[in-house]
Amino acid sequence: MTPRQEGRARPPFADAAVGALRPLVVAEARAEAPGADVEPGDLEQAVWVRLLERLDGAGPPPDPARWVRSAVRAEARRARRRAARERPLALDVGPDGPWDPGGGPEAAALRAERRRAVRAAVARTPGGCPRLLAAMLSPKDPTYREIAGELGISQGSLGPMRSRCLGCLRRMLAAGVAAPEHGGMHSGRQPE
């Protein structure tokens, strides 16, 4: 909703529109909310915001009842898409239950060791994987477009490359060994 400017009044028909449409908005929101897994009040609120934005800009809709039904369904779809993107935080679960962030010095040392192992494995992945994985693990949480621009590759090739690099990293970490250094030997040692 656009901020109200000083001395600017709400359109005269806004109060009448809100009063006349309230029962329909409530009924439509209650009908759509369970399918979108949101509270009916949240859908109502989103529709009222859209209506006030519309009244402030384009004026009242020509068919208010149809507009309300369409707006409620659009907001329900938006809520479903948002819910599909959001994932709950998965806690590390160990033998003693969920991960305790304070877990003491031993837990902190184990977490630090895991981070070091992942960083070392990332650095030893082949080809352009170290740069790609470092960009993906960045605390700035860049988008695919930003990563592709930084690496100088097309955005379309980023997904397959990411898949190959993560597969390599996963195999390295599962095996508990780092990839061989360039030349095929670890630290100059001869195979036994």
Please describe what this structure looks like.
The structure is a single chain. The chain is mostly helical and 192 residues long. Helices cover 63% and strands 2% of the residues. It contains seven helices and two strands; from the N terminus they run αααββαααα. It has helices at residues 12-36, 40-56, 64-85, 104-123, 129-136, 144-151, 155-175, and strands spanning 93-94, 97-98. Strands 1-2 form a two-stranded antiparallel sheet. Helix 1 (12-36) runs antiparallel to helix 2, helix 2 (40-56) crosses helix 3 (64-85) and helix 5 (129-136) packs across helix 7 (155-175). The chain is elongated, with a radius of gyration of 27 Å. The N and C termini lie far apart (71 Å). The model is unreliable at 1-7 and 178-192 (pLDDT under 50).
